[in-house]
# Entry
Amino acid sequence: MVEFKQATLIYNPIARRLQRGCQKKVAAIKEAVEGYGIHLEMAPTLRSLHATDLTRQALAAGTQLIIACGGDGTLNEIIGGLAGSPVPMLILPGGTANVLAKDLKIPKGFLSSLTLLTKGKIQRITLGKANSRYFSVMIGIGVDAAIAAAANPRVKKRVGQGAFWLAGLQQFFNYTFPAFEIHTPDRTYQGTFAVIARAKSYGGPIELVPQADLFSDRFDVCLFEKSGRLAYLRYIFFVFLRRHTRLPDVKCFSAASLKVTGPPETWAQADGELIGHPPLEISLERNALSLIIPS
# Structure
């Protein structure tokens, strides 16, 4: 492992695992990092996309390591500023779902995660890119992005993933399941919900795209073709049984590049953060990010 002399902690003070006793937890992180002989600069996020700006400022100031503490949305913003740089990122899982950290098997505790400074390894990975937005884990098209749009931030702050279940219940009665198209170099698919994945984990115990591999040079896609509430109750049932990929109206395929087209009411999310509506040009940015992961 490379010896770091200077690092920057970029953290979201309202992330799920930092809300209570944030200053005490951040102070413990600082003490632990500096115990490894590393000078640590502190950079809390204050607004949407602030983490991207903070990352770029830290790189310009000569930081040798970005330590990211927050949820998948905060990590997504940091990656937006870090992509293409040789400076590595160490994840301290601080959010609600922590999908990227789970897929990488990063220890849950902040201080346990920091032991990767001596016990981990640096791994270069490929990122996805949707139009101009980088992502590490997934793009969701359709109902899950609509749920993310409907989730109340105040409820999310209080009950975590429960906010998404509440928003999902609301969308179950209100969502119209508009159809969209995914175009690969070989063919065109149509559906009402899709996950374009780089990693297996989706959230909690759910693996929507079990064949996905963060260290591959491809996207793995799970596309649900039917619309309507009864069809989605069936999908949910089979997802929890981990047998949804066997359904004839669920298509699983891989591609190195994709284009998504569809009506303006179709939402899209990247790593849990809303990115707007189709059209989307989705491509791979190879060897784009260095991560410190368990060895």
User: Anything to note?
Assistant: Residues 135-286 form a domain with the Tumour Suppressor Smad4 fold (CATH 2.60.200.40).
